[in-house]
Amino acid sequence: MFNTADLPDVIPIFPLSGALLLPRSRLPLHLFEPRYLAMLDDALKTPGRLIGMVQPNPGPGKSAQGLHAIGCAGRVSQFSETEDRRYMITLTGISRFRIKEEVEGFTPYRRARVSWQGFEPDTGPPDDDCCFDRSAFLSLLDRYFQSRELQTDWDTLTQADDELLINSLSMLLGFEPEDKQALLEAPSLSTRRETLVTLIEYALRGGDDEEIMQ
Fold this sequence. Notes:
Domain Lon N-terminal: 11-204
GO molecular function, one term: serine-type endopeptidase activity
Keywords: Hydrolase, Protease
CATH architecture of the largest domain: Roll
CATH superfamily of the largest domain: LON domain-like
Strand order of the largest sheet: 1-3-4-5-6
Helix content: 25-40%
Radius of gyration: 18 Å
EC number: 3.4.21.53
Protein name: Lon protease 2
């Protein structure tokens, strides 16, 4: 549906800590602040219906006004309005971008001039992970879920293709914002899977001052 060369130079951006959107994946959001309702109204008037998700960055290496340099744009693919004019929306990830500068204007929400260069595969076919050991990965994931007392639909997990499985877990599991950013910036699906495995193994070893698993 989208070609990198046809994507707009300026997009609305939604800074949200811990929220991760990846290409060809879906992120549900609940909008209620007036500025983000205005952002949604304006996005729906454009052909692409794009909103850029980006994480705040309080530390070094930040881009415009405390934001990470790399985010991911999603198309508003579903939305519904509640009686009190709140919106439940779904963003479908289109492509990552790099913020060049923030754009001043009269909108109540933030906008940025972005570059899509270097992220051309995001608008192509699903990525492959040729070295993916699914059995070992699911075994590790089972240990993680048990340690957190989490429930999941294992039939759905085992039947999901590699990209859907890895990207969905990257988005859904409760990692720190900086870890989510590392998963976003992974240059390939195999690199993202390796990062995901590292994060799960770290958690199982007792990361974040948790009790070490025996």
